Amino acid sequence: MAKRTSAQAAETREAILAAARALFSADGYATTSIAAIVDAAGVTKGALFHHFDSKEALFLQIWQDLQLEMDVEARAAAAAAFSKFDHFAAFLAGSRVYLSWATRPEYQRIVLVDGPSVLGSARWHGLEFDLGKRTLVPGTKYMASKGHFPKAMAVPAALMLQASLNAAAYALAQDQLGVTRDQFLATFERMLRGLSQISSSKAG
Amino acid sequence: MAKRTSAQAAETREAILAAARALFSADGYATTSIAAIVDAAGVTKGALFHHFDSKEALFLQIWQDLQLEMDVEARAAAAAAFSKFDHFAAFLAGSRVYLSWATRPEYQRIVLVDGPSVLGSARWHGLEFDLGKRTLVPGTKYMASKGHFPKAMAVPAALMLQASLNAAAYALAQDQLGVTRDQFLATFERMLRGLSQISSSKAG
DNA sequence: AATTTTACATACCATTGGTATCATATCGTC
DNA sequence: GACGATATGATACCAATGGTATGTAAAATT
Lengths: 204, 204
Hints:
Radius of gyration of chain A: 20 Å
Order of helices and strands of chain A: HHHHHHHHH
Largest interface: A-B, 50 and 49 residues
Largest sheet of chain A: none
Oligomer: homodimer
């Protein structure tokens, strides 16, 4: 039990993160106790509070990890689609990846459901919008610059589209509406194209 | 201190609801203790747990009260607008009222932020969609029946539009984006009309 | 080699939501 | 109008929780 090297400290830290991530995802933040986390990770409370200032700080770290993983994948998909110089295709490709992430129980529970209440609504929306600013807003800004809609709508449109995907993800995860993923995506695309006043071009 | 009539019991109940509502709104569910509630209400824990099964049940009651109050007002606005037999106007009028409610700190914190995490995501979205089913979905179904968009999009469209309004409300409440209410409403209307493939008619 | 810092372990604490119990006033029934 | 049942609510208590205080030994730094 004499693990004291910095490498093994990192290992401890990772064990805590993995255990907490699984428990937060399965049971939610509020009903997951510190004791349950350290038990699952095979460490003690001392170790946890050494690596993280508080339960909330631990949650925030996991939240950011998840966002980063999703962001990397969404960017890659959008970049691949943009290789054909089609901004709509890139936008939709990124959105599709985001929707698939937002449907995963882990991402949904931690990032979307518990996030706002644990981190505070203001902080959560700040972080969410920072994400949108790097992903969706460039797309809407480009469309606006091409005259598809007024520039003043670039930011609100991105925000509302992002929220639409989140809502679709909730509904899909629960599957209590009888609406399929393809139907949501079709509606989303129609909203986007309708917003842009472009009669249906060749959709991806 | 000898209040024991059923009328005064109702008074006690209302005092608890009012105190809890104010505290949940100001501090959030998690950080508001039962002790703080009963102190503010001028009653004891015995009274609170007599009238409500649990802290969560108390929260749920307040949640439903707020939804009901909002629903009444939104319906009235939509009905008034529909007197001119304009479904779009009715839809937009109801949406405007909803947006104004969703911007209030009390509604936003209790219904939108803490709701999903306290009541559980599944329950919350179930209740939210029940609301949408009585308000937004009839509107989108009507539009679909008129051929504005495929019928299969009526439900997903309503869901996504509702989520768009929620997101707009968050952003407006925080005011950290520089987007005005009118800009959000204009974008929302454009999304709705774009979805419906109707080139801008005379908007309200 | 001396000292400081890192990395944990253990014992403890105040607060929390919730329960058990008790007291008393009101209400229906006769 | 007596009386048991019930509604109302006050008090004492409990287990669990997040977090802290403190201790300790290994590693890093000087």
